[in-house]
Design a protein that fits this description.
Blueprint lengths: L2 H15 L6 H17 L5 H12 L5 H18 L14
């Protein structure tokens, strides 16, 4: 997906939801969060964690604060690692 595709996607989403497009720091932080969750815990949890983070932060929060909180969440997820008995892809060890 190109940056232009991403811009079109968020323009369409914004037209339907009245939400602003994410700022560049928010995009970077959200993609980093998804990457860390997908590769460091259980892969299929990545979209769900991003969704939960979005709900928790809400649209009323300052964009710089959202990006900072996402960055802090990344560090917490990295420290957690994969749950016992699962590899980073969410498959059972062994």
């Amino acid at each position: 997906m190109t940056d232009e595709d991403l811009d079109r996607l968020f323009a369409a989403l914004g037209a339907r939801t009245d939400l602003p497009a994410p700022t560049d720091p928010e995009v970077t932080a959200a993609l980093d969060l998804a990457r860390v969750v997908a590769h460091g815990t259980v892969r299929r949890a990545a979209p769900l964690v991003c969704y939960a983070a979005g709900l928790a932060m809400g649209a009323a929060m300052d964009p710089a604060e959202r990006a900072a909180r996402l960055t802090a969440l990344i560090a917490e997820v990295e420290a957690m690692g994969a749950p016992d008995g699962l590899d980073a892809g969410g498959r059972r060890d062994g």
